[in-house]
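Holo prediction — (2S)-sulfonatepropionyl-CoA.
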Amino acid sequence: MNTADETAPQPIIITEVKGHIGTVTLNNMAKRNALSSALLDSLTAALGDFKAQSVRVVIVRAHKGVKVWSAGHDVRELRRGHQDPLGYADPLEQALRAIRSYPGPVIAMVQGSVWGGAFDLALSCDMIIADETSTFAITPVNLGLPYNTTGLLHCLNRLPVNFIKEMFFTASPVNADVAKHWGIINHVVPSTEIEAFTQNLAEHIATKAPLAVAVVKEQLRVLTDFQPVAAQVFERIQNMRREVYESADYQEGIDAFLAKRKPEFRGK
Ligand code: YXS
């Protein structure tokens, strides 16, 4: 018979504060930790709570040994019908900004596969510690979705453009060794050691002067995000993206995902 707590709804993320370290564990394995607005809003709120408690270092992780760290943006929630699917107000974008502006290091501890918007989320963390099971894929071309300029900037600030193109154009996962080679991840750590490694790293950073750490993080954010784009250029980019998210291919991409079938893109 189910005890009461077994039937109680599980929280979509689990948060914990121990000393100066805050941990967010993604907790929706039934949906492969898909980045739904519920999960993302909880993550953003957790960071606000951590900030109020002056938590110095944050770890974002999934449960130990998962096969899927996060399956990326919840496809069921992607806007369809003439609205930017990755607009400024999208919960994913709000969560990415919350990570990037958090006044302390946010470390992604990755086991298993990382997909789509979850790749942008991990890349928006200050460091990625990953084990040998980790893979990373960015998948808008699987859906016919026009990725946003902010997300491309996150990649450009980190990776060579030819590698970014290969990841975006193929949507193929890259494994831990390739990810380490190109600088996506800071350390590849055996799955048996990754929890202790990440905790030790966080605790070491937490012994340093938090104001000095926070100001370096914010300076690096401002400097890397500062990419002047002429108004007309930005408007042209938005117009190009609008043509894509208003295309029949984008509708087909989402329809095919939801129907669990391969999409047939016709270039219009
Ligand atoms: O059928 P039920 O209801 O049990 O739900 C299934 C899946 O529908 C659900 N699920 C998702 N729901 C919404 N959005 C998702 N991204 C998503 N991924 C999975 O989770 C339940 C279990 O999925 P299932 O049976 O496929 O699990 P599996 O273990 O066989 O396979 C795990 C994956 C991750 C390999 C597989 O679920 C998968 O390929 N998921 C989609 C990965 C992906 O393409 N993500 C990109 C999403 S779009 C995005 O992030 C950006 C907008 S962009 O496109 O620009 O990158």
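READOUT: Residues 4-191 form a domain with the 2-enoyl-CoA Hydratase; Chain A, domain 1 fold (CATH 3.90.226.10).
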